[in-house]
Write a structure and sequence with these properties.
seven-stranded mixed beta sheet, 7 strands, alpha+beta, 43% strand, Bifunctional nuclease domain, globular, single chain
Length: 138
C-alpha cells in the first residue's frame, strides 16, 4: 500500500475546549465519509488560534507560525498539505512544502500546531485512516 493510500482528507468540523477555563483544546476532524477524529490534549491557546484562523482572522499571527511563514517566504516554499499520524502515544504531523518542482517534507511536528498552520494557510489536512471513528449521532 502506498503511503498516500493510508491517509484521508479531513476538514475541521469543531474547535473548542475540554475545560471551562479554556486551558485544553479539542478539535474534531471529519472525513468525507462522515467518520470523525477527535483530537485533544493540546493547549487552549492553539485552539483559539485555529478558531480565529478558520473565521478569517489572520492578523496577529503567533511568533512561531510567523517564523515558519518568514522562512517559507525567504526560501520560496509553499506549504501544500499537513499529514497527521500517531507516533507512540502522541500525535505528530508532517508538513509538505513545494519549491519549484520539488517537495520538502518537515517531519514529526506537533499535530496541533500543524493543524493551526493548515487553518492559517487554508490547505488540506490528511489524517491516517486508522485514527477515525464512526460518526457520532448528535
Amino acid at each position: 500500500m502506498l503511503e498516500e493510500d493510508e491517509y484521508v482528507s479531513a476538514k475541521i468540523s469543531y474547535v473548542g475546549f475540554v475545560d471551562q477555563m479554556g486551558l485544553e483544546g479539542v478539535v474534531i476532524l471529519k472525513a468525507e465519509d462522515g467518520k470523525e477524529f477527535p483530537m485533544r490534549a493540546f493547549s487552549g491557546e492553539v485552539a483559539r488560534h485555529i478558531s480565529r484562523f478558520q473565521e478569517g482572522d489572520k492578523g496577529g499571527i503567533p511568533t512561531i507560525y510567523n517564523l515558519v511563514e518568514e522562512i517559507a517566504a525567504m526560501e520560496d516554499l509553499l506549504l501544500t498539505e499537513v499529514r497527521v499520524y500517531q507516533s507512540g502515544s502522541v500525535l505528530r504531523a508532517n508538513l509538505y512544502f513545494r519549491k519549484r518542482g520539488s517537495e520538502v517534507v518537515l517531519r514529526n511536528y506537533r499535530a496541533s500546531d500543524s493543524i493551526a498552520l493548515a487553518a492559517y494557510y487554508d490547505i488540506p489536512i490528511k489524517v491516517r485512516k486508522g485514527l477515525f471513528e464512526e460518526p457520532i449521532e448528535r
